[in-house]
Design goal:
about 325 residues; AB_hydrolase_3; Alpha/beta hydrolase fold-3 domain-containing protein; 3-stranded antiparallel beta sheet; Carboxylest/Gibb_receptor; 8-stranded mixed beta sheet
Amino acid sequence: MDSEIAFDRSPAFRVYKSGRIERLLGETTVPPSLTPQNGVVSKDVIYSPEKNLSLRIYLPEKVSDVTVKKLPILIYFHGGGFIIETAFSPTYHTFLTSAVAAANCLAISVNYRRAPEFPIPIPYEDSWDSLKWVLTHITGTGPETWINKHCDFGKVFLAGDSAGGNIAHHLTIRAEREKLENVISGIILIHPYFWGKTPIDEFEVRDVGKTKGVEGSWRVASPNSKEGVDDPWLNVVGSESSDLSGLGCGRVLVMLAGDDVFVRQGWCYAAKLKKSGWEGEVEVMETKNEGHVFHLKNPNTDNARQVVKKLAEFVDRKR
């Protein structure tokens, strides 16, 4: 039975009938470096000793030795459908290094436990723990010196791509619900992983193969979900129980890819947010003729650089 495949999502992963998962992507890691890379230094810190969970901090090298230099904070959650990738992969290390260099911010890339070994909602709970850990530094007396010295807690941004964008949204909803007032300035959702059983338009119907892949992957990530892809964790746009008016930030940037199966969901998320009664500002940027997380797959293209530039402008914007 261990050789019989229950769900094949190659080239990303396979799940066998025995329950074993074979991850085909995202398992390679790179170490942090105090030697500047693109003008940025990095180090790993444990945020949850009881769960042995770490995050990677990125800091512009030019301010690392400055006694007091306050920078915006970018807390980033990696994608991978809650199943593959880590905060320490070459893909995310390269992307966050570029983002920090462009935005002149301090970035925190969060590692969370992955499904199916740790199914939904565990990745959300781990991510929430990481946010609370970061916020222990508000008074300047937290356990991590870089955050104490260099973080401007008036400029906190949550961001992520794909599943990480989904996480950033839900944490911002929870921040408002749990009265973490005025903590999150804005969120950046890059090709966010939102879905539902009912197609939004013919784009989703046309991509039947991709649709089945999304639904199968969600079953792997959330095997106990009674609603399947209509689970409010995933069906942020179509679920009646998904109230976006309680989003706990003032600004939202949604970045989309024109050939991405999730593109219509992203546009409808922005539209629903505007109609919800939420009083913030939402901006959408769509890159035509590009697929899901293209900026990670081909980081040296002009379109990928535009993603980094837009993120940097959003974080660095004076408000």
